[in-house]
Write a structure and sequence with these properties.
single chain, 192 residues, binds guanosine-5'-monophosphate
Amino acid sequence: MNFLEERIIKDGVVKEGNILKVDSFLNHQLDVELFDKMGEEWAKRFEGVQINKILTIEASGIGIACVAARHFNVPVVFAKKSQSVNLDGEMYTAEVESFTHKNKNHVIVSKKFLNENDKVLIIDDFLANGCALQGLISIINSANATVSGIGIAIEKGFQPGGQIIRNLGYRLESLAIVDGMNHVTGEISFRS
Ligand code: 5GP
């Protein structure tokens, strides 16, 4: 087991409805030391890959992306969630369905912060059905920028997102892939 898998076993809580709660270290209270290790690990895995920007999505991705960015020496842009879309042409937009909240949001990124010269690493906390990632990829494509890779903290391997994204040919590096979890026993198993 790696450091993140160990932490998930120690502090993660399995909830009904295929939700893994990790709010004591990943997305409410934030363990910055752990984020630093995650950043170090992604930097190792993406060594030699051209990356000049990290893109994430609010809110949970921001902290992880910012700490990871210290290992890449690049700026972070986060896609903002917005119910209404400003159609003045200054924004790239995509529609994203939230796995946890079951609602749809537009996500927007200003055209000022993404362009055809950008080689982008996407970072996010979870990968479930892949909607959030597909929204971010679509925004990068709208800007004619390049997706250099994708770093995910926790992929739920029993949901389809990971396979969809890998089948599209993207390099996806998930630090922990949960292959099964049981809210009755609390058991969590990882892909080796
Ligand atoms: P997707 O778009 O891949 O279906 O879901 C990704 C987003 O849903 C993540 O950014 C994360 O915020 C949220 N999410 C999905 N599954 C879980 C989960 O099991 N636990 C938590 N805490 N968030 C999740």
